[in-house]
Design a protein that fits this description.
Elements: H1 2-14, H2 23-65, E1 72-74, E2 80-83, H3 88-96, H4 100-103, H5 108-126, H6 133-154, E3 156-157, H7 172-175, H8 184-203, H9 208-223, E4 233-235, E5 245-246
Amino acid sequence: MTEPLQTTTSAGADLDLKPFPSYHNNTTATASTTASSSTTSDDNTMNERESRTRTRTNSLKILQNEPYKDHRRRRSSSIISHVEPETFEDENDQKAVPNMNATWVDQRGAWLIHFVIIALLKVFYNLLPGSTPVWSWTLTNTTYIVGFYVMFHLIKGTPFDFNGGAFDNLTMWEQIDDETLYTPTRKFLIILPIALLLVSNHYAHFTYKLFIFNSLVILLIGVVPKLPLTHRLRISIPGITGRAQIS
């Protein structure tokens, strides 16, 4: 009974208990895999940062080289352009505060100012030496129409900074009545030059040359820029029409 126990004990003593064969190898492999994956992730992070930096640099270069866009869409000629509709943000800025640059035009007192200006011009030209009714009315007509064109159709923007520059691309005529056509004010400002044309031609006795001159001035400068056909239209003549804007 004693010998088998000794044999079993000796056999158990002869057994060389070793750890699981792949334990150390898996630990080493896992560590190496983790290290390689961390290295790869670090490389990817560095590559992403470099790509973002290059993208930002390229974007800044593009923005610096890209010309300023004023919402004007070019047509068949580089001389003629058309102002595109405002963006949603610009429309909100336009409606945030009443546009004091154009609201005064709707008042009845503003209508009377036009007659006062015409009367003062007529008196001024009558006082010039050698003035005649024919030439005084012709000069009154021309001065009023040219001054009206410069004020309402040439200068863009507003002298007030309440709308965040939302009206910088629009003339005063385009700012009136929120660009609504054929309002009472717009009709009055269209009819007045035509009435002035009839008065000028009447006192000029419908002389052929003065009739042609007054008609061209009234129609091309006083009436055509107010029509819907020329709404938001821009005609740029190099050396003649430059950047006229209130900012």
